[in-house]
Design brief:
Blueprint (H helix, E strand, L loop, with lengths): L28 E6 L3 E8 L2 E4 L8 E2 L2 E3 L5 E3 H10 L4 E2 L2 H5 L9 H6 L3 E4 L5 E5 L2 E4 H20 L5 E6 L8 H11 L3 E7 H9 L9 E8 L4 E8 L4 E9 L4 H14 L5 E3 L7 H16 L5 E12 L2 E10 H25 L9 E5 L6 H10 L5 E3 L5 H11 L8 E2 L4
Parallel strand pairs: 1-11, 11-12, 13-19, 15-21, 19-20
Antiparallel strand pairs: 1-2, 2-3, 2-4, 5-6, 5-7, 8-9, 9-10, 13-14, 14-15, 16-17, 17-18
Helix pairs in contact: 4-5, 6-11, 7-8, 9-10
The site of magnesium ion has 4 residues, from loops.
Length: 417
């Protein structure tokens, strides 16, 4: 007998009203970077932008899940639920927003999701959680709403205005409208949208010595996408000359490869506890695999130990495998090389060579991996490479740009492709 889907009893979006015209200029402006993995929010405090933490972390996971009692959860709570029941959780929401339902560009993401994905009323993917179907814009709105509430608690005042950062898009791309609709559902007016490489470049302006008009390659290696963008920028202007992105080279793909390697390294007779109906042990091992990858950015070897996650001859035991940086680098090298190939393509479209850029600005937490920096050094021979707050730099710069309401918005031109 098939079970009736859980009734969704509580969804925060149902309590939010669209922003009223009277709040168009009211209160502070916050900035939100809705990343594929993490959502970061920043506001101006005094004269400086600050990234508002969530449970002592910089960002909150961009995850929505159906929790116990039919409650829709977001962020850390949703991530916890994802561990218990991956079929009732959705991540990679930014990827879902970026292409119509079924588009091959994001096939990689569809293959990873364990929840039910259907075609939404707007042609974008929608996700079924219990007895309710959530359009991609509603999932984004839930994440934006959590970020807005975090900012309101931090600032101790209502927030109605937001600057959103977006990947570089073509003029006709619907993403800015979809994100504005999502912000509206979360009760906010969109002050402006800023392309992520533009935010990075303008945030970096003045920090590095040299001529005032500069050309940079912005390499963004996040959890859900690699995006490389060639930008020309000065104090208050930035033009994106070209940009390429690929979801299949992302940090989560590397995590998948690490997990596969760890499973292959298990001694004969040992396997991960549970099965398809009880994936919690595998999820715990997958989380430990990601953590091991992060540790290997600063150490050369680590032990991946997950208590009670394995069975040895039908007895419960610990999952316990060593992983070295060298092994990790073997898995990462094809992804890193493919990312640098994308840089080459973007440069060649402008008949430029790696040595023609003034600097490489690295963002996205995955670029902390030493191999990426080392390979980039070899590729961009002699060009300075900067890795400066790769997680929050986008949102911090967007908050600064958003706060300067008396100054004209910096131009951000979509790449011509
Ligand atoms: P997004 O833009 O997708 O939200 P982030 O910039 O927050 O992504 O990067 C998240 C990715 O970075 C995840 O895959 C995570 O495992 C990885 N990551 C986080 N810290 C490190 C680190 N110190 N070294 C290598 N990878 C890291
Ligand atoms: Mg990002």
């Amino acid at each position: 007998m098939t079970q009736a889907p859980t009734h969704v009893t509580d969804c925060a979006l149902d309590r939010v009203r669209p922003p009223e015209a009277s709040t168009r200029a009211a209160g502070p402006v916050i900035a939100i970077d809705l990343g594929t993995t993490n959502c970061r929010v920043a506001a101006i405090q005094g004269y400086n932008p600050v990234c508002i933490p969530s449970e002592r972390m910089e960002g909150s996971p961009s995850v929505v899940a159906l929790g116990p009692g039919g409650r829709i959860l977001t962020g850390h709570a949703a991530r916890g639920q994802q561990a218990a029941n991956p079929a009732l959780a959705v991540w990679g929401i930014k990827g879902l927003l970026s292409a119509p339902y079924g588009d091959r560009k994001v096939k990689w993401l569809y293959d990873q999701l364990r929840c039910k994905v259907v075609r939404g009323d707007d042609g974008l993917p929608a996700v079924v959680l219990g007895d309710r179907t959530f359009a991609a814009r509603e999932l984004a709105a839930l994440i934006l709403l959590e970020a807005r509430e975090r900012a309101q608690n931090f600032l101790r005042q209502p927030v109605y205005r937001v600057v959103l950062t977006l990947p570089p898009v073509r003029k006709e791309d619907p993403l800015p409208q979809i994100m504005s609709a999502a912000a509206g559902l979360a009760g906010m007016h969109v002050e402006r949208t800023i392309s992520e490489p533009t935010a990075v470049a303008l945030g970096a302006f003045g920090k590095h010595k040299g001529k005032p008009e500069r050309t940079a390659m912005v390499c963004d290696w996040g959890g859900g996408r690699v995006q490389v963008s060639l930008v020309r920028y000065a104090a208050r202007q930035c033009q994106v000359l070209g940009s390429e992105g690929n979801v299949a080279l992302c940090g989560a793909e590397l995590d998948k490869r690490v997990l596969d390697l760890l499973l292959r390294k298990l001694p004969t007779g040992v396997r991960v506890a549970g099965d398809a109906n009880n994936p919690a042990a595998l999820y715990r091992v997958a989380s430990a695999a990601e953590y091991a990858k992060i540790l290997l950015s600063t150490q050369t070897e680590t032990r991946v130990r997950v208590p009670f996650a394995a069975t040895v001859n039908n007895q419960v035991g610990d999952f316990d495998v060593m992983l070295s940086r060298q092994e990790l680098e073997g898995l990462a090298k094809p992804l890193v090389d493919a990312a640098l190939k994308m840089c080459e393509q973007v440069l060649s479209q402008k008949t430029m060579f790696p040595g023609d850029v003034d600097e490489v600005l690295m963002v996205g937490e995955q670029c902390r991996m030493p191999l990426f920096q080392q390979r980039a050094k070899e590729f961009f021979v002699g060009v300075p490479i900067y890795v400066d707050e790769p997680g929050p730099s986008v949102v911090l710069s967007a908050a600064r740009l958003g706060s300067s309401t008396s100054t004209p918005p910096p131009s951000s031109t979509a790449p011509r492709r």
